[in-house]
Specification:
mainly alpha; about 55% helix
């Protein structure tokens, strides 16, 4: 960011600029704000910007010159200054992007080097072919083993299903057997009444007969 370095304009009539007390900040306070916003800005540079804004009202930041016991000091609008810092940061990013676009793309040093092959590969092409065949054979073996494992899994699932069916049938048969083997309920038989026997002594009439 370049500080303004323009000739001082001639004094012209202008409307007074007002900045509320709660919105007014000094140059030192503005520097602290810029540091908090991660924006590098020197005090002398900001002093020149303050003079530029004061002498050219209607710019990005409202600025007034206040006379104190210590001398004349610039007061800036906090709101305007914060917005100006954000604009400057965006402009810096835009310039960085433009510079990056103008730079030629870097090529990786690995791409510039020719493809290197090991001396063993150059001296033993038959060994390379042998290793490729072994690799292919290993892939075939792995595929066959996968198929065998899938078949075994299917058979195990079938046996498990058959075992479950047999268990269910066995439980059903056991239930039926228990129902058939259950004893019939007992019924109580009342005893028959025997005829009454008169064991009393015979009367005189009976004895006479």
């Amino acid at each position: 960011m370049d500080a303004p370095d323009l000739p001082r304009p001639q004094e012209v009539s202008r409307d007074p600029i007002e900045i509320r007390d709660e919105d007014a900040i000094t140059v030192n306070e503005a520097l602290t704000m810029a540091s908090d916003l991660s924006f590098a800005l020197g005090k002398s540079t900001l002093q020149r910007w303050a003079r530029f804004w004061y002498e050219r009202p209607g710019g990005a930041v409202r600025c007034v010159l206040v006379t104190t016991r210590a001398g004349n000091v610039y007061k800036l609008s906090r709101e305007n200054f914060e917005a100006w810092v954000f604009d400057q940061k965006q402009n810096d990013k835009s310039r960085e992007i433009s510079r990056d676009l103008l730079r030629p793309p870097k090529t990786s040093p690995n791409l510039e080097r020719p493809h290197e092959t090991s001396p063993e590969a150059q001296e033993n092409p038959s060994r390379i072919k042998e290793l490729e065949n072994e690799n292919m054979q290993l892939k075939i073996d792995v595929g066959v083993r996968k198929q065998l494992l899938e078949r075994v899994k299917e058979e195990i699932d079938g046996l498990r299903s058959m075992a479950n069916n047999l268990l269910r049938e066995n439980g059903s048969l056991q239930y039926q057997i228990r129902q058939l083997a259950a004893p019939a309920p007992k019924t109580e038989v009342e005893p028959e009444e025997s005829p009454a026997v008169d064991n009393s002594a015979p009367t005189n009439e009976t004895a006479a007969i």
